[in-house]
Amino acid sequence: MKMWIYYGVLLLLSMMTHLVWAEDICTSSSSSGVLTDLRVGRYSQYCSFLIRPGGQGDITLSFSNFNYSSGIDTLYVYDGTSNLGVYLGAFSGPSLPNDLVATSGSVYILSNSYFPSFPSSFTLSWSQAEVSVAPVAEWHFDESVWSGVAGEVQDSIGSLHGLSINGATTIGSGKICRAGFFDGIDDYLNVSGIDNYLNTTASLSFWLKTSQSGNNMPGITGIEEHNGDDDILWGWLDANGQMGVVKGGGSSAQSYTQINDW
């Protein structure tokens, strides 16, 4: 699919399924695409474009064409969401710019031109690198029994081994192999050092089967500050049996339905 706009505007040939263009400012959330300025006999002053895919990887800009009137038209590039971001460069003249890399996850491009008698153009492509993060811990709960011995709940990746408290143990009827069994009253696992991972950006995946409701206490894992508001609660159950997450006593997110099966 192609779109040609002959009014001195920025033209986006997206590699996704949509096209976006504007004379003042436009935004793309695509992880890759092509941006072209094809002005013919007119000028476009302060025409800007924001690339903001939403991922965490670096964004690389590669120019395949660049011909801006030297000393008259200038293309500015910033690492960020506006011209207050980190300055990556200003480009004018016929020389093809080198590849640019933005590490913030966003790129702001500003095209500043004045005279229609000196037609300028550029074509660049962008792509955001995929970020793959290896797990830091994994617990299978495949031990035949837990008996309150230090390190008995094995972390198969690292050293975050756990200790069963108040009779927490394993059963053979897990979703995959065995599973941990907790009475819903006072059973839990103590994993020293897990707070170093829960108090920042993290993700957690697990299988859960329960028919209980709760009282806003940790159901899967968390850090509870006694009589404080600095809790980090992952997978707590409320009185309706819905699961939620919350950090620092602030806003929380909850499931729409009760958690009562795998």
TrEMBL record:
Pfam families: CUB. Keywords: Disulfide bond, Signal. Residues 44-109 form the CUB domain. InterPro entries: ConA-like_dom_sf, CUB_dom, Sperma_CUB_dom_sf. Residues 1-22 form the signal peptide. The keyword Metal-binding does not apply. This is CUB domain-containing protein. It comes from Candidatus Endobugula sertula.
